[in-house]
Amino acid sequence: MDEADGDAADRVALRPVTEEDLGLLEALTNDPEATGEFQWYGWHDPGYLRRRWRETGMLDPDGGMLIATLGARPLGLVSWYRSRTSPISYCWKIGLVLAPEARGHGYGVEAQRLLVRYLFAHTQLNRVEATTEVGNRAEQRALEKAGFTREGVLRGYGFRAGKWHDNVVYSVVRDELADDGADQPRVRR
């Protein structure tokens, strides 16, 4: 987004996780009401995120987590981790979870665009990849609007809610960034 899109309070931004964000992160990863239909994977260690934050601040060479914000208001989280693609190469796999009240407003599109720009600006990896369940049409549309290319269906890829689910894989590679100097992934139609 640029200045014509509104003032800073109207723009999505990414920032490091603070201690004050840990309650939101715990809800978005460990509360079935907050996670949403496609993100609830069951209960997990409630202290894990606090320990990770104390140890790494949620940022290390193999992955991380940032808070998506609108002005000072936290919207949710974006995350990434390094995934091996061959014996000598890797890509980033990314994820996004927004608070229930932040869904459906386009914030996820912008947060994912910003994360792609961040990863390409600060790391040497060439590919950013995301997957989502085939039934998650909202996230598929968001990834496409964010400049990702749909590559195909991964059958029986993720286990959730007692059964295996097919996922759709999306990616963006470094040379697909727009040539206009904005470092935005191109939106392919």
From TrEMBL:
Positions of the N-acetyltransferase domain: 12-166
Alphabetical list of Pfam families matching this protein: Acetyltransf_3 (PF13302)
InterPro entries registered for this protein in UniProt: Acyl_CoA_acyltransferase (IPR016181), GNAT_dom (IPR000182), Ribosomal_N-acetyltransferase (IPR051908)
PANTHER family membership: N-ACETYLTRANSFERASE DOMAIN-CONTAINING PROTEIN, RIBOSOMAL-PROTEIN-SERINE ACETYLTRANSFERASE
Protein name: GNAT family protein
Species this chain originates from: Amycolatopsis samaneae
